[in-house]
């Protein structure tokens, strides 16, 4: 693409790997094997065998989930208060830009 051109050039497609069952028996070993190829593009896609199911990795008996309440309105209030204290926000709510 030439400088100043408005034409968009999409990035190249990433490499796609489709291992066989024999190759995918050890997923981390397979990833180590394809790593030199994948590193050249910075990203890759691995399509596991069609009927592969990832193992269930959560120990149901020991798993505990603690929900947390996010009070987003309080976070917004704190941000607005801090902006007013730093003189970036007028009392009417307009943001001042610094020169």
From TrEMBL:
Keywords: Chromatin regulator
InterPro entries: JmjN
Span of domain JmjN: 14-55
GO cellular component, one term: nucleus
Organism domain of life: Eukaryota
PROSITE patterns: JMJN
GO biological process: regulation of DNA-templated transcription
Keyword Glycoprotein recorded: no
Gene Ontology MF terms: histone H3K4me/H3K4me2/H3K4me3 demethylase activity
UniProt-recorded name of the protein: Lysine demethylase 5C
